[in-house]
Amino acid sequence: MDLALLWFGIVGFFFIGYFVLDGFDFGVGMALPFLAKDDTDKRVMINTIGPVWDLNETWLIVAGASLFAAFPYWYATLFDGFYLALLLILLALIARGVSFEYRRLGRSDQWKAWFDGMIIVGSAVPALLWGVAFANIIQGVAIDETGTYVGTLFDLLNPYGLLGGLTTLLLFFTHGVQFVALKTDGELKERAHALSVKAGLVTIVVAAAFLVWTIVQHLGAPHLAFIVGFAAAAAVALIGSWVANRIRREGWAFGLTAATVVFAVLTILAALYPNVMPSTIDPAYSLTIENASSSQYTLEVMTWVAVVMLPLVLAYQGFTYWVFRKRVTRTAIPVVAH
Predict the structure, then answer these.
(1) Using the 8-state DSSP alphabet, how is residue 288 labeled?
(2) pLDDT per residue over 194-228, tens digit each?
(3) 258 within 8 A of 242, measured Cβ to Cβ
(4) Parallel, antiparallel or unpaired: strands 275-277 and 287-288
(5) Which pTM value belongs to this model?
(6) Which of 71, 248, 301, 302 has its CA 20 to 30 A from that of 331?
(7) How far is 104 from 338, CA to CA, in rounded Å?
(8) Tens digits of residue pLDDT in 46-55
């Protein structure tokens, strides 16, 4: 078995889990000013993700750790070249996490408004920049013969990268609004349903443009069929999600949006293969699955650790969501939190 290829898939799996789970966290945070009419609505929305948001973020930690151990050269080049973008993501995640914990400690409107703003910005910035980062990885970046990124942050803000960022921003926003519709009731649920239908249409248009552009960039790839297949599956799932919203099937709508994220990441992985970071300077300078991976022994040890630990992590995650599966209502919000 090619363990480097296996770990390329495992790292992809961890990023899929992160984007599916923390993606709706981002969406809920971004939707605060659009759905909440008063402080109780805001508390309801925050409480829908309150028990799970930190657990969802651990997928990013595991993905980063796996990337570091399995593909150290990929990790080094990525964090060197995308340092400012990743730093902004980290600061945004810190601000969002702090806001979840500190918002409830104050009683004044000014205090709550300050932390509400941090939740919104702390959700929107990662949702945008993750798309920008991965779009640039697909397109290729300026990597020289030493494996060093020689571009700047502004080089990443190209039309294709920004379109990728807008796609993830809208997709996560829609995903989160659907989660609110799934986890709440009453007027808040109705507003979330109406907004998810409108946001879904915009997301379909923008995502279609990004997927088509991605396919056009890889027309000569030998594995084009996989890229087109995953992109088509993502499009079908996204359209199906919008249809499910229209007929008020919140569970199906949320599940199909999650499937959209899964197939979108698979499209990215298919577009990358066999590279992990293509070079725009010279294809010979590209980092590939083989030349960026760790030693065979390291990958073997990691594989056995994954075999033992991954099922436990998945079981714990599933148990947590089962425990907190009920809807969050306005009557469940204590008066002291108002």
Answers:
(1) E
(2) 999 999 999 999 999 999 999 998 888 888 999 99
(3) no
(4) antiparallel
(5) 0.94
(6) 248
(7) 9
(8) 999 988 888 8
